[in-house]
Structure formats: structure tokens, C-alpha cells
């Protein structure tokens, strides 16, 4: 059977708007990582501590995404695969931290927790608005949108948890939010991994067609 060959598509031309959105999201997430890391330690909040790790992971993801803009589909999908695995790993780490906090039994300081939660929500809504337009792009674009979306959802939950801790004096609302954030990390990571694997396979098929005699 004759083999029909076609040229491999050129690497995606870097999207200047996407690049700008990534830089904005990178700076916002790096700043919030430091704020929540310090605030979470001060308030003894598992949810804030978990969210600070999420901000750090997102900042790294945005930096990686900037580095591969304009690369081939295969390499963009490969990086997205790594980011998806990182998101899922984050979910597992948060589950471990939540278990440890439950054993310790120290309730968080609700006022600090709530104030930082509101600040983090504002930061993530700004990031999400800049990245919303790229939610239906390739796996690399989808991964950064999912990171921002998950963070905004998590921050709303942190605020509700702070209210719950303030009203009950219990650490349970804080632990429940940390658990929800871990589930978001696991499910978001799974979505990105699935799409990235499909894109890698598609890229390999294109390369095989190009190599046909």
C-alpha cells in the first residue's frame, strides 16, 4: 500500500497575549506563595499551607509554560504531562498534611486565615480572568487555566473554612477545605495528563507519516 506523506506542522507561533497572561499569573502566584507560606505557619492553617504550595507549583508551571512557548506539539504536550503529574502529586501531599494536622489537633487562627484567603481569592480571580480566553487551547494552555481555576475555587473554600473555624473553634472546617483542594489537584492533574498523552500520540503519528518513503 502506498504511504501518503505530509509535512509536519511547524511549531506553534508564540501567542503574545498568552505570554503576557502567563507573566502576570507568574508574578501573582510567586507573591502569594510567600504570603500564604508565612501566614499559614502563623495561623496554623492546613488549608493556607496547602494553598501556598499550590501557588508555588502554579508559579513553576507558568514559568515552564513560558519556556516552551513556540515549541513543537510533542514538547508542549510533554511539559503538560509533567505539570499534570505535579498537580496530582500536590493532591497526595495535601492529603498527607491534612492527616498530620488532624493528629496534632491544633485549631487555626481564623481571622488571619480569612484575611489571607480573601487576598488570595482576589489574586486568583485576576489570574483566572487573564487566562480564561485560553481554556480551550492545547494541553499546555489548558493546564495553566485549570491551575488558576482550581486556586480560585480553593480560596472561596478557605474563606468559608475560616468562618467555620471562627464560629466553632474547631479545626475540622480547615481540614475539610484542605481535603477538597487535594481532590481538585488530583482531578485537574488527571485531565491534563489525559489530554497531554493524546497530543503526544498524535504528534508521533504525524512524525511517522513524514518519515514515509
Automatic annotation (TrEMBL):
<dbReference type="GO" id="GO:0005886">
    <property type="term" value="C:plasma membrane"/>
</dbReference>
<protein>
    <submittedName>
        <fullName>Cation efflux family protein</fullName>
    </submittedName>
</protein>
<feature type="domain" description="Cation efflux protein transmembrane">
    <location>
        <begin position="22"/>
        <end position="198"/>
    </location>
</feature>
<keyword id="KW-0813">Transport</keyword>
<dbReference type="InterPro" id="IPR050681">
    <property type="entry name" value="CDF/SLC30A"/>
</dbReference>
<feature type="transmembrane region" description="Helical">
    <location>
        <begin position="152"/>
        <end position="169"/>
    </location>
</feature>
<dbReference type="Pfam" id="PF01545">
    <property type="entry name" value="Cation_efflux"/>
</dbReference>
<feature type="transmembrane region" description="Helical">
    <location>
        <begin position="110"/>
        <end position="132"/>
    </location>
</feature>
<feature type="transmembrane region" description="Helical">
    <location>
        <begin position="87"/>
        <end position="104"/>
    </location>
</feature>
<dbReference type="GO" id="GO:0005385">
    <property type="term" value="F:zinc ion transmembrane transporter activity"/>
</dbReference>
<keyword id="KW-0812">Transmembrane</keyword>
<keyword id="KW-1133">Transmembrane helix</keyword>
<feature type="transmembrane region" description="Helical">
    <location>
        <begin position="21"/>
        <end position="43"/>
    </location>
</feature>
<keyword id="KW-0862">Zinc</keyword>
<keyword id="KW-0406">Ion transport</keyword>
<dbReference type="InterPro" id="IPR027469">
    <property type="entry name" value="Cation_efflux_TMD_sf"/>
</dbReference>
<dbReference type="InterPro" id="IPR058533">
    <property type="entry name" value="Cation_efflux_TM"/>
</dbReference>
<feature type="transmembrane region" description="Helical">
    <location>
        <begin position="55"/>
        <end position="75"/>
    </location>
</feature>
<keyword id="KW-0472">Membrane</keyword>
<keyword id="KW-0864">Zinc transport</keyword>
<feature type="transmembrane region" description="Helical">
    <location>
        <begin position="175"/>
        <end position="193"/>
    </location>
</feature>
Amino acid at each position: 500500500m502506498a504511504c501518503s506523506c505530509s509535512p509536519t506542522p511547524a511549531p506553534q507561533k508564540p501567542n503574545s497575549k498568552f505570554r503576557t497572561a502567563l507573566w502576570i499569573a507568574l508574578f501573582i502566584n510567586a507573591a502569594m506563595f510567600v504570603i500564604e507560606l508565612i501566614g499559614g505557619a502563623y495561623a496554623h492553617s492546613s488549608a493556607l499551607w496547602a494553598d501556598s504550595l499550590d501557588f508555588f507549583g502554579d508559579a513553576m508551571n507558568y514559568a515552564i509554560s513560558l519556556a516552551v512557548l513556540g515549541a513543537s506539539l510533542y514538547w508542549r504536550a510533554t511539559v503538560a504531562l509533567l505539570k499534570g503529574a505535579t498537580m496530582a502529586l500536590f493532591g497526595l501531599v495535601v492529603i498527607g498534611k491534612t492527616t498530620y494536622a488532624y493528629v496534632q489537633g491544633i485549631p487555626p487562627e481564623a481571622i488571619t486565615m480569612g484575611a489571607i484567603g480573601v487576598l488570595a481569592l482576589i489574586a486568583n480571580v485576576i489570574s483566572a480572568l487573564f487566562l480564561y480566553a485560553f481554556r480551550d487551547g492545547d494541553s499546555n494552555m489548558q493546564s495553566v487555566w485549570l491551575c488558576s481555576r482550581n486556586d480560585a475555587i480553593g480560596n472561596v473554600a478557605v474563606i468559608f473554612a475560616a468562618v467555620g473555624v471562627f464560629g466553632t473553634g474547631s479545626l475540622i472546617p480547615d481540614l475539610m477545605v484542605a481535603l477538597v483542594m487535594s481532590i481538585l489537584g488530583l482531578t485537574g492533574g488527571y485531565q491534563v495528563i489525559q489530554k497531554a498523552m493524546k497530543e503526544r500520540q498524535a504528534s508521533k503519528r504525524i512524525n511517522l507519516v513524514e518519515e514515509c518513503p
